[in-house]
Amino acid sequence: MKFNRPHLLIALAVSASLFSQIARAEDECQLTLATNNVSFGLFKEDDIVDTQKGWHQMPSREVNVNVYCPETQTMALFVQARAGEKGRFYFGDSSGLALRVSQMVVDGKNYSVAKTIDRTQFVPEGESGESLLLHNNEGIIAMDNQTLVSGKQMNLTLKITPVLNNQQFTQSADVTSLESDLLWEVVTKPQ
């Protein structure tokens, strides 16, 4: 595969909305992310991890996420951003950003992770597992078999993967910045 441009600069500004004041937490809960800025720096053709149907998976970054609530309760962490019709997050105007959640820990114990779109009862959608791909307007919850988990502290790992289309390489200037702003919200349900 040959690209017309020698390299492409990719700067991911998930920072402000991914990590700080824009993130909302209910009931005095605190949302903390390990870093305030995720940057992928300069991507070259050599950086492509995998290619399928004109889409190029680039190297991922991981961010540790911590939610702390002063009282024991069931917690869900929801995400919103500019996305396509299937809920896939945009990265720039025409590329994508994949978010994978794993390593769910509540109060020091490992649990399965599940998705929900229900902001009141947190009814899970689909099967829970060790990891899952997160889409727009979905929340993540901890599950123990078929039961929601309550606790004071929830930790997880968020893997962020840019997926660039061919146009991003062939029709971009030598240096292009791509951004994706994600809004995180902690929603709780008292025990």
UniProtKB/TrEMBL annotation:
Keyword annotations: Signal
Organism: Salmonella enterica subsp. salamae
Signal sequence annotation: 1-25
Record protein name field: Outer membrane protein
Superkingdom: Bacteria
